[in-house]
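Posting this for the archive.
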Amino acid sequence: MNSTPATGGEVPRPQRHRPPLAAAVVKSLVRAIVVGEFAPGSALPTAGALCEQYEVSRTVIREATTTLAEKGLVAPRQGWGTVVLDQEQWNLLDPLVLDALFQREDRLFYLDNLIEVRANLECAMAARAATRLDDAQNTMLKAKLKELGDLMDDPGAYSRADIEFHELIHHASQDAFGRAIVANIQGKALHAPQYSGHPTREDIELTHEGHTAILAALLVGDADRAAEEMREHITSSWARRRPGETPEA
């Protein structure tokens, strides 16, 4: 077996490929567990019952339950079978778990929490970016803001360019972990109707004002103001689109 590192010094990591059938079963069971169809401490149906329910082999069910365990959703218990774990054990940043959280009746609770986390991370990244931007990055941000201004009558295109504007700031911050976390949680949240909403022209104009204020702070290297403008931008945008009161979690 060749153990020579790949070109550039990167060591290739082995990829675990899930059989398509197992992936479909995993998605279904993740949703069932996260939305509460199986209570914490209860056992999943037996392997035989799951085979019959999903019309798959025991090998597929075994692969699926292994994946659920890796996500912190279940664990084998001697004499009990495969038991559903408490939410504190779940990997909440796992894409499938996040997606299922946004399908719960109390999903607004989690979206509010996500906005808070995103705001904290992006404020820190904006502050860092204000002290690290170079001329090329300044030029790219100015160009992206102009592009956004030209897209205000196209909500879909504006939304895509909006993400790119934020990504330029994330990149300039050199905060690798913050970038990864925000990309993960925002990527899933954008699929939730409560998050994306249906912005009006007025919504977009207010959003654009926020982008303009953030860039103005970045261009003069004012870290505190950049963080403040980013927080105002994120929280006010969510306040405008948030549909109503959330049930208690």
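The first helix runs from residue 20 to 34. Strands lie at 74-77, 81-84.
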